[in-house]
């Protein structure tokens, strides 16, 4: 079994990571890829709450967030 491909983005808050992924995820999905997103934070957050990054990325087409 071959290893899963991995792509990572790291930058300061407010630099456009989520916006970039919102545009990239649908394009990769159109090419037949099933995508999962991992988010690391030192803040407490409610996953998949409308308006939050995790919700926006699931709406963009990520299978798992």
Keyword list:
65 residues; mainly alpha; 0% strand; globular
Gist?
With 65 residues, the chain is mostly helical.
Describe what you observe in this structure.
The protein is mainly α and 65 residues long. Helix content is 34%, strand content 0%. The chain has two helices and no strands. It has helices at 17-30, 53-60. Helix 1 packs parallel to helix 2 (53-60). The protein starts with 16 loop residues before the first helix and ends in a 5-residue tail after the last helix.
Number of helices: 2
Give the strand tally. Answer: 0
Biggest sheet overview: none
Mean pLDDT: 84
Low-confidence stretches: none
**In terms of structural class, how would the helical and strand content be classed?**
mainly alpha
Shape: globular
Order of helices and strands: HH
- Radius of gyration from CA coordinates: 12 Å
User: What's the helical proportion of residues?
Assistant: 25-40%
Give the termini separation: 24 Å
- Strand portion: under 5%
Summarize the helices and strands and which ones pair or pack.
Layout lengths: L16 H14 L22 H8 L5
Helix pairs in contact: 1-2
